[in-house]
Amino acid sequence: MAAKKVLIVYAHQSSASFNSAAKDAAKEVLAAQGCTVEVSDLYAMKFKAAATAEDITGDVKNAAHFRYAEETKLAWEEGKLCADITEEQRKLTEADLIIFQFPMYWFTVPAIMKGWMDRVLTLGYAYSEERRYSQGIFKDKKAMLSFTTGSHESMFSADGVNGDMNVTLWPLQNGILHYCGFQVLAPQIFWAPSRLPSEARGTLLEGWRTRLQGVLAEKPLSFTPLDCFDGEKGFQLKPEFQEKNASKEYGLTVGIHLGKALPPNSQMKAGV
C-alpha cells in the first residue's frame, strides 16, 4: 500500500492542552506507519476566520452585491484566491485522511476552525451542485472529527441535558464533511478530560494511539446515497426507498429519520 498523506487541522491555543497531546499522538503514530503528516495549527498561523472579499486578489465580479460562494468559485478557477486559502487547499488536495482536532465550543467547532471550513472548502473546489454528498468531490478521501468536550458523556445522551451527541454531530459530519463527499470516519470523542485525573487522561490518549494503528483501514459511517433522492422533485427520498423503510423501526439517518426513532449511534459508530 502506498504511503498515505494526512492533514491534521488543529485548533487550540495552548501547547500544554489535551488537544495538543492528542494532535501530537496522531502525528507520531501515523508517521511511524510511514504516513506523511502535515499540521495546520490555526491559532499559531493566526488563520483568518472571516470569509470576506479580501480572500480574492484583484477585483471581484460584483462589488455592489458581493456573494462569497460565487466570487470565490471564480477566483479559484482563475487562480486568484489569496495565499493562505491556496496553501490550505494544496494540503487538502494532497491528503488521504484529514483529522480535525479541537475542543468543542458551543456544541460545534471553534470559530477559527469554522473559518477554515468556510474559506478553504470553496464552491467549485470542494463541492458543486452536481458533485456533493455520496457523489462529492472528496469521495476518495477520509475525514474525521477528534475533539474534547467540557461535559461528561452522560450529559450528551438521548436523555441527557445536552441531548444526543448523534444529533449534535449531524450538521458537522453530514452538512460539511459528507456534503463535500468525504468518507466520514467515526469521531474520536474525549469526554471531559479536564475533569479527569492525569492517569485517566493518559488512558484516553493510549486508546487514541491504539485506534490510530488501524484508522486508515476503518470503514466510514453510513449516509443515504444521493441517488436515493429525486432531483426533479426537490431532492425528496424516492418512493421506492420510502416503501422499503416503511416497516422498519428506525429512520435512515439522524436527519433523514422519516418521522421514526433515530438510528442509535449512527453518527458515532460505523456499520449501524
TrEMBL record:
Pfam families per UniProt: Flavodoxin_2
Cofactor(s), names only, from the UniProt record: Zn(2+); FAD
Domain (Flavodoxin-like fold) ranges: 4-192
A GO MF term: dihydronicotinamide riboside quinone reductase activity
Its EC number(s): 1.10.5.1
GO cellular component assignments: cytosol
Segments traversing the membrane: none
Reactions mediated catalytically: 1-(beta-D-ribofuranosyl)-1,4-dihydronicotinamide + a quinone + H(+) = beta-nicotinamide D-riboside + a quinol
Compartment(s) where it occurs, according to its Swiss-Prot or TrEMBL record: Cytoplasm
InterPro entries in the cross-refs: Flavodoxin_fold, Flavoprotein-like_sf, NAD(P)H_dehydrogenase_qn
Keywords, sorted A to Z: Cytoplasm, FAD, Flavoprotein, Metal-binding, Oxidoreductase, Phosphoprotein, Zinc
Family the entry assigns: Belongs to the NAD(P)H dehydrogenase (quinone) family.
PANTHER family: NAD P H OXIDOREDUCTASE-RELATED, NAD(P)H DEHYDROGENASE [QUINONE] 1 ISOFORM 1
Binding partners and assembly: Homodimer.
Function: The enzyme apparently serves as a quinone reductase in connection with conjugation reactions of hydroquinones involved in detoxification pathways as well as in biosynthetic processes such as the vitamin K-dependent gamma-carboxylation of glutamate residues in prothrombin synthesis.
Name of protein: Ribosyldihydronicotinamide dehydrogenase [quinone]
Organism in which the protein naturally occurs: Gasterosteus aculeatus aculeatus (three-spined stickleback)
